[in-house]
Amino acid sequence: MYDRIALMLSQARRMVNVGEMVLCAALLMVAGTVSAASTQQGGLVDVGLVVFDPGIPADQSTHSQRGIFPEIRKAEAKYMPVVLRQVLIESGDWGVVRVLPEVLDSSELLVTGTILQSDGLRLQLRINARDASGVEWLNRIYSGSTRSTDYPVSVPGDPYLGLYQQIADDLVAVRRQKNAKQLTTIQDIALMRYAIQLAPTVFGSYLTQTPEGRYVLVRFPAEGDPMLARVIRIRNQEYLFIDTVDEQYEHLSEEMAPTYNLWRQYGAEQAIYQGEYKERVASRGAQGRRGSFTALEQSYNTYKWSKIHEQDLDELALGFNNEVASTVMDVSGAVVELSGTLDSQYSEWRDILQRIFALETGLPPAS
């Protein structure tokens, strides 16, 4: 019952504002007493897409040479999971697909990524996917290149859509190799891992971990277990906040897309021109003719427009990376206002939920 409500909420994000989220929280509180059995989605595994690692080298002197603009790269690290999320949702092969501000180890399927290259001409991502039991589904590098016909980019759209589709295809290929019992076990392990985080003394014996780091389900709480019902309610309230964050990521991505795509187009044109220029230089002799005025003018114009859109995108990236809009949430009948960056809000919300669980159960707060 609860997950069906959560799925409906996730898929209707664009129609939900903060005030409505408070009302939804109250509805989810009522649904929080459902049994563990009703949280299963018939094999539809939930996916958590962690904000990508921007892959920015510590050595700042290499940034210009590698075409890396840190603020833009940080924004890309949040933009790209939103694109992948949409591809996964449209496939219809998954349960709820969320973009996570940070790693949530108890995710049924956790997908992480690192940006290895992104310059408008070429995108290279390292993608890792691992389910709650610790089994690795994917660990490979995906590469994509653009052509002149890929620009200008229509919105909504992405010049590397094929790359994201390949990731989605590879994930669903692994999922289809697993039977219904295996998928249900993954869901049960995910729930138990979350329960152990909240109450290790109560649920610690329900899972065991192999020397290789795999999680094995030893037993599962009985139907209607009140402690598990509290865990499910707390987890669902955490998901409610993630859905709110997810909506903000999507909104910011939509705002960023037009300027970002234009910046990628100029980046691609500049990369092509620089490559052709190097080939021309290499083919000349020591006494060869220097570049023509037309070539120099073209180079300058490409550089000029690239810098203009880099500045515009930098402004958007700063807003994307330093989002400080407050988020209003409802918990146990009390309205809580969270402030700061989305990452810090998420950490604060998790801390609040853990303290509420400790107060309700009389257990010591989890470390």
Walk me through this protein's architecture.
This protein has 367 residues and is an alpha/beta fold. It has one domain. It contains nine helices and nine strands. Residues 1-41 and 285-289 have low confidence and may be disordered.
* Number of domain units: 1
Major sheet: size, sense and barrel closure? 5 strands, mixed
Would you count the extended β strands for me? 9
Low-confidence sequence ranges: 1-41, 285-289
Task: Summarize the SSE layout with pairings.
Blueprint lengths: L1 H10 L6 H14 L15 E4 L19 H22 L5 E4 L8 E10 L3 E10 L4 E10 L15 H15 L4 H19 L1 H4 L3 E3 L5 E3 L8 H58 L9 H29 L5 E5 L2 E5 L3 H20 L6
Helix pairs in contact: 1-7, 2-7, 3-4, 3-8, 5-7, 7-8, 7-9
Keyphrases for this structure?
367 residues, disordered N terminus, two-stranded antiparallel ribbon, five-stranded mixed beta sheet, alpha/beta, single chain
Condensed summary:
With 367 residues, the protein is α/β, with parallel strands linked by helices.
